[in-house]
Amino acid sequence: MVHFFAYVVVTAFITLTAAQLECPGGFSLFESYCYFIGKAGYDFYESRDECDKRHSDLVTISSTEEREFLKSLLKDDAAKGVWIRADRVGRDRPIPLRLGLNKGLSPDVKCETLSKRRDWEREKKDCDVSNGMKFVCKTRSFARTCTRRTCFTLLPGRYYQSIGQMTCEDLGGSLASIRSKRESKVVKEYLDQVSRLENPTYQQRPDKNNRYKLLTTLP
């Protein structure tokens, strides 16, 4: 059986006093989300794939503040537009009047981009999904907290066990193993702080019988 859950990553010999939000390399933090500006020259599907490689999605814009933040990141050389994703629209749902960027649709239907000529306002227009443009990826930030010798990072999202292990290793850590009451207390308080994640879970490293423990609460 395959489980989906969030992971705690363990790294060593870093001392922080409280949980703080961080982003993957190359991403910029705004509130509780991280943003990546991709290079120009990608069509819509390539842009979406590039975001997938970074464990993120094409950005959806939910507030004026978020739009202003993105405006500050975008450069003048993105004058052709920037690929984004319409609000609350499934990535492969055929809703051409709202998005027009889904598989099986005609290339010249209505689509949504960020337009520099309109001061980076969202713009719906006739466009070709094969146009090469910049793109913006968005993902949740992750939080980190530390004891004297060990740091714990909770990664929001859903991962297969094998992908979760590789993700932890990419960050220079491993799947968490709680070895003391102090660590248990620190991680419990940490999970309580990350209130934006509902029912967070974490995966311990296998025991001597190579069995994984999927925990929804700390012992």
Automatic annotation (TrEMBL):
Coiled coil: none annotated. Residues 30-84 form the C-type lectin domain. Gene3D superfamilies: Mannose-Binding Protein A, subunit A. Residues 1-19 form the signal peptide. InterPro entries: C-type_lectin-like, C-type_lectin-like/link_sf, C-type_lectin/matrix_domain, CTDL_fold. Pfam families: Lectin_C. Keywords: Signal. This is C-type lectin snaclec-2. It comes from Plakobranchus ocellatus.
